[in-house]
Amino acid sequence: MAAGNGTGNMNRRRFLLNMARSAAGVSLLALGVGLHARSAKALPPEYIRPPGALDEDKFLSACIRCGVCVRDCPYDILKLAELGGDNPATGTPYFVARTGPCEMCEDIPCIPGCPTNALDHSLKDITKARMGLAVLIDQETCVAFLGLRCEVCYNVCPVRGKAITLEYQPNKRSGRHALFIPVVHSEHCTGCGLCEKACILEREAIKVLPIRLAKGELGHHYRLGWQEKARRKGSLVSPDETHQFNLPEGVKYDYETGRVYRVEEGAPQGAGKSLRDGKAPGAAPAAREMAPAAPGAPGALSNPLDVLNRGIREAE
Amino acid sequence: MATPIEQLGQDAIAAKGWLGAHKWFILRRLSQVAIIALFSIGPIGGVWVLKGNLAGSWVLDTVPLVEPFVFLQMLAAGMFGFLTTTLIGVAIVVAFYALVGGRIYCAWVCPVNIITDAAAWVRRRLGISQSAKISPQTRYWMLAAVLVLALLTGQLAYELVNPVAVVHRGLIFGMGAGFWGMVAGIFLFDLLVARHGWCSHVCPMGAMYSLIGAPAALKVTSPNRAKCDDCMECFEVCPEPKILPAALKQGMKRGLPALVDSSLCTRCGRCIDICSKDVFAFGVGGVLLSGRAHEEGARKGASGEKVESLKKAS
């Protein structure tokens, strides 16, 4: 009886030990994989997901790494990530814009075959895809900034004239030419990467970046005055207040000519010297402002300049 | 009398010829290679019999297949935004393996099986008998850990390193350093660390398929177990040797039905091939698919008591 209990205890002991051994081994393995998973969570910026891909954290829980999208891509630009440190999550699809950008097929053939909706089946219009955002990231090497006519990125852009526009700026170096600066608009850019592929430089000056890196995010409480004004179809503050200038003593701003000038000591009227272009402002407005306001005249005290430019009158 | 390891399989070749002694082995390899080939001829020849890979695919561009293993991880990771297609794909795969035996996946489909079979063969050739003691239950712990990992990380974390997925994807999408590293790792693990180490102890996919295949009708039966001469060759080649005694003389003494009644059986058929006495045969229910005599098997299967024990086991 006692012996039987002894073996029972031994068996139970061995059983529990074996269980603990398995559990410990598996936990260690799981810990390793878990740590690796955490480091692999952010997609490295040079890799771009196919059109319609869910946000990266959702994508990693929805993509089963089957590679059907890779097979369905008629341009063979999609690859499945290899096991390895700096790659996207093992087995997930990606493309690299510089070597093989998305050609933006109108029927988006990579999406319908996705068996899990990791590539969102509700995306029917390729121009609504947001794979990333092109950013003209280096203005020092972009030849448009150097004053050359390039515009290759502008011309290959499939959302032509919308995602990239050309803005004309004066070429300050030559003093008499224009710069044709490509400007990307996030409202229309799909992140296909055709511009990055086409950039004529040795290493591209325009790059498609993940939106998390390329875009800022305005404080949610911000209201843009001009937009609110347009929505209201009129000013929100009415009537518009005249701006009040808080200038140092002896300095004046002429509201009508838009000039700032110093009032010379002892100069009775209209002899101020403009700080901006060295020329005296027109005598008429200066004379009007310098003239002491007639006491009791309507609006005399409401002129803010009377207060701002205090001391001038004493000088007179 | 147990056959010495150097003479393993020679009796069977003498009795049935080389082809007869490797019938299921050859069919199995054909099946594994054919699956890889069907996935690969699409991009090469433009014939899309199978598109995708084992995790998910389209048969002839119309029938979806989705592996339940990745689907379970999806659910654990909290992803419920899948499609009806996903569910249909999972249902087809689960239904198939529930019917024919879940671990048929391991022996007839999974490419890692080729690596571990090779390791087992080299092991026998070199006479390596040392093996680390890993509990065969470890795979169920692994399965649980895979799901917990998905839950904690919110992604299919195990798929970052899943050897089955890495090897299979490497074969049909191009092999890189990761593929060869994984092949070498699994091979050396099975060769030097533990006998049948990966497939029969650790792999969580095998664990899941054994659970799915519990109700399966297709089984290895042992209609001629009375003829067993204890050569032990089947134990030497079986990847799950612990499941064999119940189908052989030991089971006969205890009145158990003449079949390998464990969901861990991979239906690889090595026991059928290697047996010079034709003890084993594939069977569905009580009906044999191969092999000749089945007097004993039919008799045992007919008794109510045995059906009872069958139910209990599954």
Short description:
The complex is a heterodimer of chains A (316) and B (314). Helices cover 28% and strands 12% of the residues of chain A.
Q: Please, could you describe this protein's structure?
A:
Chain A has helices at residues 2-39, 56-62, 68-72, 152-156, 194-198, 211-214, 225-232, 283-290, 304-308, 312-315; strands at 79-80, 93-94, 133-136, 164-171, 177-184, 206-209, 251-254, 259-262, 273-274. Chain A is of the alpha+beta class and 316 residues long. Chain A folds into 3 domains: 36-131, no CATH class; 132-216, Alpha-Beta Plaits (2-Layer Sandwich), CATH 3.30.70; 251-315, no CATH class. The model of chain A is unreliable at 270-300 (pLDDT under 50). Chain B is mostly helical and 314 residues long. Chain B has 2 domains: 48-211, no CATH class; 217-313. Chain B is built from 16 helices and 6 strands. In chain B, the strands form 2 sheets. Chain B has a 3-stranded antiparallel β-sheet with strand order 1-2-3. A 3-stranded antiparallel β-sheet of chain B has the order 4-5-6, with no helix packed on it. In chain B, helix 7 (138-153) packs across helix 11 (204-212). The model of chain B is unreliable at 293-314 (pLDDT under 50). At the A-B interface, helix 1, helix 2 and helix 3 of A face strand 1, strand 2, helix 3, helix 4 and helix 7 of B.
